[in-house]
Each structure stands twice: as C-alpha cells, then as structure tokens.
Amino acid sequence: MNTATTTAVQLRNNPYKVAVASMVGTAIEFYDYYIYAAAAVLVFNSQFFDKSNPNAAILLSLSTLALAFFARPLGSALFGHFGDKIGRKKTLVASLLTMGVSTVGIGLLPTYQSIGLWAPLLLCVCRIGQGLGLGGEWGGAALVATENAPDGKRAWFGTFPQLGAPIGLLLANGAFFGVSAAFGAEALVEWAWRIPFLASAVLVLVGLYMRLTLHESHVFQEVEDKGLKVDAPVKEVLVKHAGPIIQGTFIMTATYVLFYVMTAFVQVFSKSPVALSAAGHPTGLGIPANTFTGFLMIGAVVFGIFTSISGLFADKIGRRAWLMAVTVGIIAFGLAMPLFLDNGTPMSVLTFIVVGLMLMGCTFGPMAALLPELFPTEVRYSGASLAYNLAAIVGASVATIVAIKLNENFGLMGVGVYLAVNGVLSLLALWSVHETKDVSLMRREIYEP
Q1: 3-class DSSP state of 63
Q2: CB–CB of 412/342 below 8 Å?
Q3: Domains plus CATH for the chain?
Q4: Predicted pLDDT of residue 263
Q5: I need a surface site. Which of 92, 307, 309, 356 has the fewest CB within 10 A?
C-alpha cells in the first residue's frame, strides 16, 4: 500500500461519528428554523406588525414563513456550488454560521412599536438568512452521512441528519413551552420569546465544534483526486440532470405539505377561538396554546422514532417501494382529516398529530438517501439540495395560508383534499424513478444521459 493510499484510509471518517455530527448539526439548524415558525404563530403578529387589525397581523406574520422557502433554493445553489467545488465539510460550517447569525439577529431585533416598518423589514431579512442557511445545510448533511455509510446501510445512516428535524421540532417547542411556563404567557409575548433565539448561539458553537472535527468525504475526495470536479456544478446539474431535479422536487412535495399542515395550519386551527367562517365552516377549536405545544412535543418523539424505522425498511425493500406505500397512506390520511378534527377534542387532535407525524417520519427518513442517489458525485450536493429546496416552494411555502383559506371556504375536507392531491403528485414522481438502493455512489457511468 503506497503512502497516498495509507493517508486516504487514515483520513476516512468513522461513519458513526459522521452520523452523530450530521444529526447534531441539522438538529441545531432545524431548531433555529422551527422557533421562527412557533414565534410567527404565537408572538410575531403583535411584536412586528400593526396590531390594529389582528387578522391582517396574523396573516402577515404567517406570510413571512414563506420567505425562507423562496430563499432556500438560492441557498442550495450557493452552498451547493461550493459544496461540489471545495468540499462538504467547509460548506456545512458556512451554512451553520449563516443560520446561527440570522437566528440570533432575530432575537435582538427592535419591535414595530420601537422602529415602525423597519421591524418587519429587518425580520424578513433575517428570515431570508435562515432560508439561505437551511438551503445549504440539508444537502451537505445528507451527503456526509450517506457518502460515509457502510454498504447496504445508506438509508439508515441517512436518517441521522433527518433526525435533526424531529429533534429540532422537539427542542423548539420545548423552548417555548418552558419559557411560557417559567415566565407566563404575557411575558412570552412581550419579551421572553427572545430567549430561544438568543440561546441558539450556544447550540451553534456546539455544532461548529462537531463539524470541524470531521474529515472530508472520501467519495468527494476521490472525485477531486481524479480531476472530475466541474467548474459550474449548478449549471451542470441544471443542464444535464434536470429530470432528476424535477422528480426529486415532486417526490418531496407531499412530505412538505403534510408537515406544514400538521405543525402550522392545525396549530392555528386548534388555538383559534371556536367560531364559524362566513361559509359556515369551523375555524377554531379553542385549545390552549401550551396544550397544543405539548401535543407537538409528543408528536416530535413519534416523528423521530418512525424516521429511524423508515431507514431500516428503505434499505431492506428499497426506497421507491417503501415511499410509494407511505404516500398512499398520506393520501388516505388527508381524506380522513375531518374525522379527526371536525368538532375536535384535545384527544382527537393529539391522535391526529401522532398519526400524521408517524407518516411524516416514514416519508422523511429515506429522503436523505434517495435524493442524493439521483445524482453523480460531482454535482450531488447541488442536485440533491435543489430538489429538496424547490420542493419547499411547491409544497410548503404557502401551504399554511392555502389551508386556512380552504378551510374557511370548504371546511376541513378542502384541506384534506389539498394534502391528498399533493400526495398523488408525489406518488407519480416516485413511479417515474428507478430503485436506487443498489446504486454505488462511487460510479458515474450510470448517470450519464
């Protein structure tokens, strides 16, 4: 064995260390991302917008959620370019810093009462920064986990960065639950909401330490050593691999719609006072805010458990077969929504959250393996990130607002049909791809057009 080969072996990452590092990093990123969603529902309408029209304020607050979804493809293109050019490790450090600075910045912003229209404008800038950071985060984390995974276990190792989503959801809702319990609901709205945002600084330092101890992916290193890197990976993937980008985008669509219907629309619907829309449909259940936050924390645990389980099945029977079966379940779940939430009780809402986030884990877990497997190494960061984050625009950017309006005009069945239709789109996209569980990430020729 020559010196170069020996060095390469010595620098190869322990897959379990990579798995933990990717999980910790994505958990921090998703924590930052989700505390914004929680604050947008709970407090931003009164802190950053004119309170004279409460309904307009809540819609404006929720609309800022969409900014990150439109920024995420830009982040995936920016960080994807550098991830395929200079490596996964350095790019993941940069994406985590981008998210961290944006999140801490939100915690320091003056309110509408202090600086007027500058408050929502600065809030939007920070939210865009969060979108850029998460747009670059997911692809890199998925790649370092799957490119370092043992043979036959890519989907299971790929679930570790995916576990960042339920862990982040649990931490974010736990932070708001704890702050509200410690200081009271009034203090939460007035000032204590800043604590979860400022606490992100500590978490980011932990994530940076974890990532700086990793070596570069050996799969990427081989491409670099052989001179196979391309000068413009984003252009390359858009020109030569547009088909997999489109397929990956629609494969993820139902996942996004499901998640934001569950965590944003149902949250607004559950917490809103009991009332009827102009069309005669219920618009609220009057469940206390902290009660629903507790439901989401329980759901996050279920989400995490089934995210891990899904990787085992995706490795055993294949990504495509597993995801097609789960997507059929999502379609049925959407059509059954009124059974859970019409005249809903706290127990029926909790049941809905648990079942929905169980399905969410089953569909979300294998995505970190499937989407990267659609692309060759030299454009894998760019391709997987673009597909994942374009799906955020299609499936999540306006899901909450669309669901609220559908419920007002057509009731919960309208929202359920909306979820089911997006499930059909994902099912068709899955049907159009080949099984990828036996694809070698070191091979290029299978991808050539």
Answers
A1: helix
A2: yes
A3: 12-447 (1.20.1250.20)
A4: 86
A5: 309
